[in-house]
Specification:
Belongs to the complex I LYR family. By secondary structure, the chain is mostly helical. The protein has 3 helices and no strands. Helix 1 runs parallel beside helix 3.
Amino acid sequence: MANHLKEQVIKLYKTLLYLGRDYPQGAAYFRGRLKSAFMKNKDEMDPEKIQKLVARGDFVIKELEALYFLRKYRAMKKRYFDPEKKSDT
């Protein structure tokens, strides 16, 4: 595997591991799934295939960030929105 691809894969793994701390089903669950996904593809040597897998990992990062943002938004809305108080504007 080319050195730059190896760096990309390691960076991707570390980023996903960091994001997994706040996963709704728990960090341990996420870590196990992450490890199994990376171990499944550990013998891949085709640079194009590795690039596709890294791109898929980047997509997962964006999805996780969206999930966390939505969860935060819902918590803020629930905290500050009073459903019994309606405006008649």
